[in-house]
Specification:
Oligomer: single chain
Strand content: 15-25%
Protein name: B12-binding domain-containing protein
Number of domains: 2
InterPro entries: Cbl-bd_cap, Cobalamin-bd, Cobalamin-bd_sf, Met_Synthase/Corrinoid, Meth_synthase_dom
CATH topology of the largest domain: Rossmann fold
Pfam family, one: B12-binding_2
Organism: Planococcus dechangensis
Number of strands: 6
Bound molecules: cobalamin
Number of helices: 9
Strand order of the largest sheet: 2-1-3-4-5-6
Keywords: Cobalt, Metal-binding
Helix content: 40-55%
Order of helices and strands: HHHHEHEHEHEHEHE
Largest sheet: 6 strands, mixed
Radius of gyration: 17 Å
CATH class of the largest domain: Alpha Beta
Length: 217
Amino acid sequence: MNDVTQLSELFLLGEEEEALKFVRNYLNSHSYEELNEQLVRPAMYRIGELWEQNKVSVAEEHLATAVCEFVLSATEIRAEDNDGRLKAMIFAPQGEEHYIGLKMVAAMFREEGYAVRYMGPNVPLDAALSLADDWQPNVVALSGALAHRLPVLKTYAQSFTKLKHGPTVLIGGRAVTLANYGEYSVKGAVIVRHLGALREWIRTGKGSNDDSTLSTG
Ligand code: B12
């Protein structure tokens, strides 16, 4: 059994302690980014495939997600608090319920020293806009898992880019890796397709040279 299969089985069995031990052991020889991109994401995608094929039940998939969330929270790296940190607000739009990817994004911003407001999934636009107006984040990061979420992501992105303090809006998630997002590009918003590209954006303010990885509207 490879690592991805092994971890997904621990998730499906609800083996919290074993899953945590497995992940901590993996982290002895891998980065947190490798953990997220090469182990946890594929493990959850595998569970999605088994679910689609009716090989696991909704209850097992929920259990697996809960264990996954526990493991991510337990292993997160936080930079020390200091004054004058850049601020990132992170959430998914109304209707979107998937949030494991968002948690990874929030973790990466924390690891990179940002102050983070992580609001989870299914956040109404007005409420998010009013929080952003008060807190004035430098970055607003949005996520969508299903392709039909692209129009609502576009609406959200347009609204945030119009805020007076002008945050950068990042859009990511499975939806943008699947779809032809060209028609959804928004001026001032950046589409980021994976965590490596996000790290690069955070550190340099730019995407990688690979145009298919990241595109600006
Ligand atoms: C767990 C799960 C659920 C849980 C979510 C709980 C939770 N807490 O998140 C629940 C049960 C709620 C759920 C519901 C549904 N789901 Co679901 N779900 C999944 C599953 C198995 C795992 C999701 C996950 O955690 N993935 C792992 C994370 C790490 O991956 P990720 O989200 O892609 O994030 C990565 C990148 O995209 C990126 N990223 C994500 N966001 C952002 C944001 C930024 C700014 C950046 C830079 C990067 C970034 O970072 C991550 C690391 O690379 C997936 C399978 C899959 N392939 O994802 C199906 C899956 C996404 N779901 C699916 C479906 C169909 C549904 C439902 C419609 C089912 C239904 N009939 O009710 C509903 C829709 C709910 C809704 N309105 O949103 C399908 C989608 C198929 C499609 N048409 O696209 C999938 C693919 C399963 C399948 N194979 O059929 N689901």
